[in-house]
Amino acid sequence: MFNIVIFGPPGSGKGTQSVKLKEKYRLVHLSTGDILRDAMAKKTPLGVKAQEYMGKGELVPDEDVIGMLMGVLDENMDSNGFIFDGFPRTEKQALFLKKNLEKRDTMIHALLTLEVKREELIKRLIDRGKQSGRSDDKLSVIENRINVYHDQTAPVIEFYQKLDKYYPVAGMGTIDEIFDRLCGVIEEVK
Ligand code: AP5
After folding, report:
1. Is the CB of 59 under 6 A from ligand 1?
2. For the chain, which residues make up each domain, given as ranges?
3. How far apart are CA 105 and CA 1, in angstroms?
4. Is 0.85 topped by the overall pTM?
5. Helix (H/G/I), strand (E/B), else coil: 66
6. Distance 14 CA to ligand 1 centre (A)
7. Is the CB of 15 under 6 A from ligand 1?
8. Pocket test for ligand 1, best of 7, 59, 68, 151 (most atoms within 8 A of CB)
9. Cα–Cα distance list, 22 to 41, 47, 57, 83, 90 (Å)
10. What's 2-29+80-185's CATH class?
11. 181 touches ligand 1 (CB under 6 Å)
């Protein structure tokens, strides 16, 4: 298996690039944000709980997100590998992922971090908010999501730096330019 984490602040292009990477490398795209939004739409107990946090731009508690992922890993162990998008977002989640991949004789091969300026993130998310219907795509919540990323999620970088798996990638430019940069790194580490 070949497993990557696509990492970066809200609006950095993780979802956009995951769709292209998934096709090129035939990987399973596992977006915790998409799974949580689906649970919210279905009003499951997890969805109802998650809505409280997501609407404010806060992280959903680790135990809920981890619990949600347990089955998903096993369902896809016969695949070429995973793109983890939006996960891990805390050190606890990173540790969970490491242990659970090791138990299944595999690992994260690279943490690809999209680097994008704050003003560009806000611009992209405000633009998307005009059509997305995402309750977290409004300015006050966007600001908080970016702050939460810096305070609670960015420390995950250090976790992967220690494992020698951290790869920063310039996330400004066209979608295709950024995709080429990501593929360049993947070809090196594969
Ligand atoms: P999640 O769904 O993961 O959202 P996010 O990290 O805030 O990221 P986005 O989806 O907003 O942005 P993205 O980086 O994917 O960029 P995208 O490609 O969409 O999480 C949402 C919430 O769920 C969290 O706040 C939290 O509450 C909860 N959650 C999720 N996972 C969790 C976890 N593990 N633990 C705890 N809580 C969790 O692009 C954004 C826009 O920019 C799009 O309109 C796109 O078309 C555009 N765009 C993309 N690339 C470019 C480009 N190069 N140039 C111009 N525009 C571009």
Report:
1. yes
2. 2-29+80-185
3. 9
4. yes
5. helix
6. 6
7. yes
8. 59
9. 24, 26, 27, 7, 24
10. alpha beta
11. no
The single residue listed with the structure tokens 């997890």 is 46
Q: Indicate the residue type of 163.
A: L
User: 150-182: per-residue pLDDT in tens?
Assistant: 999 999 999 999 999 999 999 999 999 999 999
Q: Atom 56 in ligand 1: which residue has the minimum CA distance?
A: 124
Compute φ and ψ for 65, nearest 5 degrees: -70, -40
pLDDT over 90 at 71, yes or no: no
Taking the CA of residue 61 as reference, the ligand 1 atom at the shortest distance is 36
Q: Please name the residue ranges forming H helices in the chain.
A: 14-25, 32-41, 45-54, 62-75, 91-103, 118-132, 139-148, 155-162, 175-189
Q: Which amino acid is at 105?
A: D
